[in-house]
From TrEMBL:
Residues 33-55 form the BTB domain. It holds the Pfam family BTB. It comes from the Eukaryota. InterPro entries: BTB/POZ_dom, SKP1/BTB/POZ_sf. This is BTB domain-containing protein. PROSITE patterns: BTB.
Length: 55
């Protein structure tokens, strides 16, 4: 069993939800958005790193 002294990080069950919430909050404020996707004339700002994670 590892301990905090081993340099391990323990994630809660909702860590992914928290990360997505915070990325969306940044996106909605146009903070760190570095890509614009245009679909049907509508523009969507996004984070390049999030899009790369969807590969």
């Amino acid at each position: 069993m590892s301990s905090a002294a081993d340099g391990c990080i323990k994630f809660t069950r909702h860590a992914g939800d928290d990360a997505l919430f915070n990325f969306n909050r940044l996106r909605s404020r146009n903070i760190l958005t570095d890509v614009t996707i245009v679909v049907g004339g509508q523009q969507f700002r996004a984070h390049k790193t999030v899009l790369m994670a969807c590969r």
